[in-house]
Amino acid sequence: MFISFEGTEGVGKSTLIKRVHEYFLEKNKEVILTREPGGTALAEKVRNLLLQVDDTEVMCPDTELLLIYAARSQHLSKVILPALRDGKVVLSDRFTDASFAYQVKGRGLSKSKLEILNQTFVERMPDITLWLDAPIEVGMSRARARGQLDRFEKEKLSFFSKVREGYAELHRQQPQRIYKVDATRSEQEVFKQVLEIFESKL
Ligand code: TMP
Asked: Which residues are involved in binding ATP (predicted)?
């Protein structure tokens, strides 16, 4: 079972993932918690490149996309696929849907570039994707309250509106995999909805 968690900044992904992780541990399931970009030592170095703010040189959108896929390829080969082969539950904080939302919708890259990368390098998609949705303003004020902003968090609200619309589009196209979770509700209510999704799907 491969479950990914998606959403714009500050929607409460980390809190939910920890909760879901505990839920599987309590059920005595072998479960790993991982994230993108990142998830291996090398992929975490690429994550740092992607998130760090460097005013000396602007990162081109294509470069950003390729770095994300370099990290993803390493993460899939070294962590996700071996864990799934061992029958473990894999919980990933983001996966390919983020690339559609951020790089295609947010940055405006062509969908065909992403499709080529997915077809070539992504042999396994999540079984369930939980998309935590909340108005951009709500999430961004939470993200700002966390402290220094990374390269993505520094983007304008209009960028995140496009990202949110990207997730909405994916949800409309693939409702059998991508579930929308109302992240404006309490942690308790969000977790309850997620459990209902698991029960209906498992
Ligand atoms: P995080 O803050 O949720 O850990 O994610 C790091 C940032 O990376 C977040 O702002 C979204 C961005 N990102 C992309 O732009 N494309 C991707 O494919 C992934 C996985 C993340």
From this structure: 7-14
Q: Give the domain extent around 30.
A: 2-201
Pocket test for ligand 1, best of 36, 105, 153, 160 (most atoms within 8 A of CB): 36
| CA-derived radius of gyration, the chain | 16
Tens of pLDDT, residues 136-191: 998 888 888 888 899 999 999 999 999 999 999 999 999 999 999 999 999 999 99
Total domains in the fold of the chain: 1
**Which ligand 1 atom sits nearest the alpha carbon of residue 35?**
4
Answer whether 131 contacts ligand 1 (Cβ < 6 A).
no
- CA of 153: how far to CAs of 43, 54, 122, in Å? 20, 14, 26
Annotated binding-site residue numbers: 7-14
- List pLDDT tens digits, range 50-78: 999 999 999 999 999 999 999 999 999 99
Q: Please, are residues 84 and 31 in contact by the beta-carbon 8 Å criterion?
A: no
Give the sheet arrangement for strand 31-35, strand by strand: 31-35, 89-93, 2-6, 128-133, 178-182
d(CA 100, CA 121): 15
Probe residue for ligand 1, chosen from 102, 105, 111, 122 as the CB with the greatest number of ligand atoms within 8 Å: 102
Report the C-alpha gap between 140 and 150 in whole angstroms: 12
